[in-house]
Structure formats: C-alpha cells, structure tokens
Write the structure tokens for this entry.
Amino acid sequence: MRLRVLDANAHFSCGSCTKCCDQPWGTLIESDKAAALEHHNFSAYPQLAGRKYYTRPHGTPEGYFVLAKGDGTRCLFLDRDGLCIIHKEMGPEAKPHGCLKFPFLVARLPQDDRVSVDFGCPAVQSDDGKLLAEQADDIAAVIPLSRRPADTTALVPLDPEVQLTQAEADALFERLEATFADAAEGDIWERFADALTVLVGTRRYKKAAGDEDNGDALIHALRSGARLPDQPQRPDTYGFAHPAAAPSPARMLFAATLFRDTCPADAPIQLSLWKRLTLMPKLMSLARLNGAYASRLLGCNLNIGQVLQHEVDPQIDPAGTALLLRYYRTRLWQRYLCGTRMSIASGLHQHIHDLNAIIFVARARAQQEHKERLDLELIRYGLNRVEFLLANQPRLFDEDRMIAWLKAQMESPAVAIQSLRLMSLRQAPAPVEAAPAEATC
Ligand code: SF4
C-alpha cells in the first residue's frame, strides 16, 4: 500500500511574512476558482475596484488563469494587513491550490509519497513552528496520495547505464545524506565533491559486480561509511581564476538554471519556440557570464561581470553553511529530483546548479549592500529567491524540447565537478615560488 511519509525533521508554522504572496512569478488559479471570484462582492476592498482579477497570457497551462499583481510583485489579493483577501472573504478552499499547499512539497517515489517543505519560506529556513507530523491532517487535505499503486520492485536510475534496486538506492541516499551532515567535514563545495565520488564509486562497484552481487555487499559497503573499493579521491573544488574561464557545458547548465530570471515579466510559463529564439541572446550572455539584464529575482538591472568581480570572503558564514546543509539533506531524503524526476547523477548535478544560482544571487545582493562575506542573511535571501524561481518556472529538464546535448552533460560526473567549481569561492593556494638557487663558484 502506498504511504504518505512526512519529513520527521521539518517544521513549519506560517509567520505571515507574506513573502510567498510577493514574488515576481505569476500565481496560477484554477478556472473554476477564478470564475467564483467574479461572483463575489469585494466592494470592501477599494484596491480591487475596476481591476481585472486574472488574465490568461499566452502559454498558460490549460484550465488555469494567472492572478493579477497589485503593487509591484505583490499578489492583487494580498491585503494591507498581510492577509489573503480570498481567504478572508471566501474561505481557504477558494484560494489557488498552489497557495493552499505551500510550503509543503511532495516527491512521488515508486513506493511512497514523501512530503517535506519549500526552503523559499522564511519560517522553514528558520526551522520554526510545528513538526509536519503535527499537521498530518492538514497536509493530507492538500496533498492527496498518488493513485499509482506502490511498486517495491521498480529500479532507480543511477545514470543512463546503471540501475539500483530500491534497497541499494536507500543505502546510497543514506550515505549521501551523511555527506551533508553537520558533523561531517568540509565546506559546501567539498560536501558535493564527496557526494560525487560516492556516486562514481557506486557506479564502478555495480559495473564491476555485474550480476554476481545480489546487492547486499554494496548496501553493506555504503552503510559502513567506509570508502567504496574504487571510489575516487575528492577532487579539487577551487573556483576558476574567473568563472568565465569554466568549460562551456558547466556555464550552459548554469545559464539554463537561471535563464528564467532574464525573461521579461510578461513571458509565458511555457515558451514557444519563437519566444525561446528571441530570448537566446540573454541565455548566451548568462552562459558567457558577461553582459547585463533586468533581473526579476532582484528587481533591478544586474551586471553579471560586476557581481562576479565583487570579492567576497571564501568562507560562507557557518550559519549560512548550516542552512544549505539542512536544505540539501532534506532534498536528498525526499528524493526531490534525484531518482524521481531524473537519474540520481543528473539530480545531484542539478542540485549543484541550484547552489550556483543561490551563490550568484547572494553575491549580487552582497554587491548591492557592499558586504564582503556571504552571511546568513544573504544565503537566506538567495535561497528564498531561487527556491521560488524553481517552484514557479519550468526547470530545464521539464522542457520537452530540452536538447539532448545538455541532458547528456547533466549525467556526467566530470562535468558536475566543473559545475561545482563554477561559483566556488574556494581559492587555489598560490604556487610556492622556488627559492633562488644559491650562487656557486
Ligand atoms: S491568492 Fe492569496 S494566498 Fe495566494 S498569492 Fe494571492 S494573496 Fe497570497
């Protein structure tokens, strides 16, 4: 039987910060709920007078409309007291489903549905509020179980060539989670590098064992915490002399992750081929890591070169690192991306580019605020902006026309290492100059 498994470590209680209702992305509302707004008397709210409540821009998914904006990026229905007008007037069930279920997030595994939380939410970032287990009924009401029957025999793709049993995948994810434990060693880049070596070691083990291993030995090796027999050493994670010097696949994948930040506010959720072509110069500018664009995430013009030239301390504030570690532990436990929406190798690589996007946005903010260290506040800001972007806009791999070349790069651990170095703040030690040879007669 399929179960709904709630993240035992996640907390959430709404702090009415209104951040989820004040985002540059459109809020989708189901067509029947949109129609109900037309029949309600909102005369007590002068800010709604004469306004169109919703629109249907080209590319809006079938059966949905997009709610209008009020001041700036605020939802039209966000009242001055920080509460939702639809909720106050018509009850919670009249709100869009996306609003109802936020910040809960579900990953559909073959055998169960795992529910955790969106780290764009400031209360989630602070780990404030009630455990999810204390909100089980509320969660069940907004996140129904998948109708797919539980399948305990489905294989989990490690990469295009290697599949894991669910028991093997469980052991691998436990090992990956441990890599991101607070007590483990290394900064965030070293943790990812360690995780990549575990993936490569697992792949080599499976390839070498062929059909001879029933999985028990691999599971034991992963759970032991010891190095796998052919696990590579942790590679260097030093940043490039300049990010623009990184190999093009890493830069293209970064650009693809943050591409929607360069799109104008009226760009539809699903871009036509023509629209993509017109936006291609912005994608290439982001991939070359130069030029400027109007950033929707930051609400200002962004000069990419200036952001990257603004020097920051190579160490992220420990509290910022702790937040990032908790974020990635959560995603790995939940299998959000890894092994569900894509292979484990691709999912981990996409997580690296999510990190690149968070660091880039945090650096942009640091430049604006003349800060020289990525402190907790900046990491929270980057995480908030990027999580909302990723939750509201299609990711690269969701696009049905995603080019095969990029997809192949996502599967490659070698490219993943280059991606990891792209925004790394770690600096290679300066080469030791050889002492001048003593003059001899
Ligand atoms: S509909 Fe209500 S809950 Fe949803 S974004 Fe607008 S104000 Fe927020």
